[in-house]
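Suppose you are handed only these lines of text.
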Amino acid sequence: MSVLSEELREKIRAEFPKYPNKRAVTLPALHLVHDTLRAVSREAIVEIAELLELHPAEVHDTMTFYNFFKDETHPLGRHRVWFCRSISCALRGGEELLETVCHRYNVHPGETTADGRMTVEFAECLGACEGAPCILVNDVCHMNVTPDSASALIEKL
Ligand code: FES
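From them, the structure of the protein bound to FE2/S2 (inorganic) cluster can be written out as follows.
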């Protein structure tokens, strides 16, 4: 049984006309699979490679180069929360913010909470230094975050 649903395969195929060749669809395909399945498993790599007419090692190389994609041993939680650790945020309490949130939710950066709700990640500058400290909750940036406002955001997830 295949790991990629027909719907997911169609979404990947829909990317083909946007790129000069199938190889160039590797990253978009990885993102689509990662977003949907919350991890890119070995089986998914093989199936992506078949769709793109590549060797699985080529897809695996791209996947591991970016250190963004999770494999099946460390799947993403339902939500991904990125804590900026660059200078502006660090100077305005970003480290304490991360420490407090990790303590509250009993999780370490790079890990997922036991209930699978949230994966906590480090981020480099989110480009919103004027609102430091910042976090990215899924794809939405939040500025001037405090431990309490971060917890409120997380509770809404
Ligand atoms: S240093 Fe955190 S957003 Fe720029």
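What can we learn from it? The mean pLDDT is 96. The beta strands are 79-84, 118-123, 135-137, 140-142.
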